[in-house]
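Bumping my old thread because nobody answered last time. Still need a sequence for this structure:
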């Protein structure tokens, strides 16, 4: 058990909350950033619902990715930083800089504060978005050696994660020399929601259970349980060999949206009665995307099967992810328990 102080940015978010929980359970003291002090009671309640009793082991700092103010105080006295906060909108904004600027400049603000405070290591939450897009789909599994081409046909979110991670590596190789950096690149993150403020990934399961999707596009992707992503952050934080490395966070195997829907119907029975059964032909998704900008990223993924390797995290850090099925069902069960599907109870 460690008593070191760790800063977690975006502590009120889905992944941030799970990282705070994992750190507290491992004995660390945690300082979590929130954009407003009003979020503190909500975060404490969320953690207590998950069985944690943080007490004085958890404190809060107010900081915004778009402002310098607050970051020096947030980083002061910390041994490590998990930089998780980054915008993840459900659809592209009209101006891509609305998410590129806070992602890239926010990462640099955190790194500069870490360098000034004498932090040992920063673990940056990047994404598979920074690994596998903007070029022809590879016929082999993607690895940590691969990079997205942000000049290719990519969404604003994909571009933001790529540019932010590139900027972080450039910083520690230049101005921030001496500061250790490790990066975690998750695919779509599912798993138990700690509160009603869900993530974009969890919204997929929520929409299926609510029957809000008109049908099931034939899109295949990698998934990972949020508890395993938090575990990988802690391993990347403390393992000496993780410094200077990227780690893809993905469970074994890929799933398509129709498979996810079938699993929900099979396991939940009546609670999944609204889950669609109709599989949409690709042409229909493309026609809909032409009229609805929120569907364009989905249309881009049609027919693009991206296999992703998790061997580096397994071999170097001893990481053992849960199955896709466990992550999906933990997501659904938590949404029902939180009352977000009252009609399914």
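Sorry it took so long. Here it is:
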């Amino acid at each position: 058990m460690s008593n070191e102080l760790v800063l977690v940015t975006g502590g009120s978010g889905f992944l941030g909350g799970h990282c705070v929980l994992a750190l507290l359970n491992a004995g660390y003291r945690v300082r979590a950033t929130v954009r407003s002090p009003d979020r503190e009671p909500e975060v404490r309640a969320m953690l207590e619902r998950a069985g944690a009793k943080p007490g004085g082991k958890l404190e809060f700092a107010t900081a915004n990715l778009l402002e310098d103010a607050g970051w020096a105080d947030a980083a002061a006295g910390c041994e490590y930083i998990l930089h998780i906060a980054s915008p993840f909108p459900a659809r592209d904004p009209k101006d891509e800089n609305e998410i590129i600027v806070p992602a890239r400049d926010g990462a640099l603000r955190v790194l500069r504060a870490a360098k000034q405070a004498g932090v040992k290591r920063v673990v940056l939450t990047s994404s598979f978005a920074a690994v596998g897009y903007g070029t022809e789909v590879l016929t082999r599994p993607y690895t940590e050696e691969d990079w997205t081409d942000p000049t290719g046909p990519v969404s604003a979110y994909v571009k933001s994660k790529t540019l932010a991670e590139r900027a972080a590596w450039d910083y520690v190789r230049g101005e921030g020399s001496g500061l250790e950096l490790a990066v975690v690149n998750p695919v779509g993150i599912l798993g138990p929601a700690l509160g009603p403020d869900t993530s974009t990934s969890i919204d997929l399961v929520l929409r299926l259970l609510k029957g809000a999707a008109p049908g099931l596009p034939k899109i295949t992707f990698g998934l990972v349980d949020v508890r395993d992503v938090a575990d990988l952050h802690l391993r990347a934080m403390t393992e000496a060999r993780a410094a200077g490395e990227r780690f893809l966070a993905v469970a074994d195997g890929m799933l398509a949206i129709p498979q996810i829907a079938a699993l929900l119907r099979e396991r939940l029975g009546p609670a999944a009665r609204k889950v669609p059964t109709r599989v949409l032909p690709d042409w229909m998704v493309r026609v809909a995307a032409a009229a609805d900008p929120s569907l364009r990223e989905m249309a881009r993924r049609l027919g693009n099967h991206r296999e992703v390797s998790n061997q580096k995290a397994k071999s170097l850090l001893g990481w053992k992810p849960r199955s896709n099925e466990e992550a999906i069902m933990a997501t659904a069960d938590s949404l029902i328990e939180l009352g977000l599907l009252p009609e399914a109870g």
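The longest helix spans residues 97-117. Let me know if any region looks off to you.
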